[in-house]
Amino acid sequence: MLIRSLLATGLLCGLLASPVASALAAGDPVLVIGVPPETLDPYNTNTTLTTAVTKSFYEGLFEFDKDLKVRNVLAESYEVTPDGLTYTFKLREGVKFHDGTAFDANAVKANLERVLNPENRLARYNQFNRVKTVEVVSPFVVRITLKEPFGPFINSLAHASAAMISPAALQKWGKDIAFHPVGTGPFIFVEWKQTDSVKGARFADYWQAGLPKVDAITWKPVPENGTRAAMLQTGEADFAFPLPYEQAKSLGENKKLKVIAQDSIIERYVSMNMLQKPFDDLRVRQAINYAINKEALAKVAFSGYASPAKGIVPAGVLYAHPMNAWPYDPAKARQLLKEAGYANGFETTLWSAYTTSTAQKAIQFVQQQLAQVGIKVQTQALEPGQRVEWVQTAPDPKTARVRMYYAGWSSSTGEADWALRPLFATEAWPPKLNNTAYYSNPEVDALLAKALVSTKDEERAELYAKAQELIYKDAPWAPLVIEQNLYATSSRLSGVVVMPDGNIDSRQVAVAP
């Protein structure tokens, strides 16, 4: 057996720390984010900031550190057979769920079997559907057998969606677990006032000594950029993400705040529904790519805290294959539209997956750019309920209402499979996953499938590179920019970090007395 141990230095240090609560344990820090969570069930969301909230209550077997490296949490070590099919996990002992029940191998089995049950229709089904069986070997040893080799399996288990929910709570609440999270995380769920706030209280029996360092935590969704910034300045918030890019300089001059800008793996794009005219014509999709000035977009909507996307998988993601950004050439765009039979342009709609001020600026900029080549676009920023109903759960691809769709994606597993398969595989059409372009290329499907079962790094890199080149050539998207993560904290706050994928690690959150 190939034996791997992923002992995490940070967690080990925490276990060796004094069991006495930190002197910083006080107060109720308020963390402001740009979008409201649509659920508190981590298995039923594809929204990064939603899982940032659920991480207050839940943990998984593994997690990512700030550099997207895997480290242990509820799993102490694992073994994998040479054929890559069977994984055996040694679990951490002495961990309790918030309801007082013990975390053990049966909990792992219950959670994986729940997401694997297609009748539950959970959003993360496709992330785990290569699991064949989950066996309890002993109270703290669990064996997982896959249907076929799955290179990114441990990365999938480190994703924030792969949380351990109390089996007793699952039995009690059923589907309503989405409103009653019960995990092993540092905070116990208190209340969720939808669109207003999610509150958690310190879990006194948390397994990691010295944590949490505060009495409570409050998450507040605030879509309007300026309001998030104002809440920082007035002291109503201790943390805000994302920040309005245009206010970065002025906020940085406030001595009571710390402003941080970091590279991300978040790509903003516009997908085009290839099942509908005129987007079934490659020339139209190419024209839209040529019509948008990405350099200008980065300045106008992101105040320079972004750069043109070079390909469809950002640098920093394992197996990313960089390519040249689409050049800005409106004359070429008009020529292609004329060749496609749209010399006078056409009318269409552009929806945004977000209602933030930055998103509003982005879609207005795209609207103006397309108008210059004769494409008249009506824009609409979707509320969370509209996004779910109109886009993510549209039942029939042929009648899906989405046409052009402004969104973003980060591969929260840190590798190219989750940057490509959920967005470009034929099997990923909504409502299964997020292929909102309804793109389908059998050659791409085959490359992604082959890469998924490969255990050789060089082979996977080559397969993913070929897939990315084909997708880029087919132009189901207009790749726009890779944005920077811009956030700020009050001077009294520490221990909150925005990850490269836009998730948030708040386990070490602390406030000065």
UniProtKB/TrEMBL annotation:
The residues forming the signal peptide are: 1-23
Does this UniProt record's set of keywords contain Transport?
A: yes
Q: Name the SUPFAM superfamilies on file.
A: Periplasmic binding protein-like II
| Keywords of this entry | Periplasm, Signal, Transport
The record, for Pfam families, names:
SBP_bac_5
Stated name of the protein: Glutathione-binding protein GsiB
**Record has RNA-binding as a keyword:** no
The family note in this entry says:
Belongs to the bacterial solute-binding protein 5 family.
Which organism is this entry from? Methylobacterium indicum
Every copy of the Solute-binding protein family domain together lies at: 70-427
Q: Where in the cell is it found?
A: Periplasm
Role this protein plays: Part of the ABC transporter complex GsiABCD involved in glutathione import. Binds glutathione.
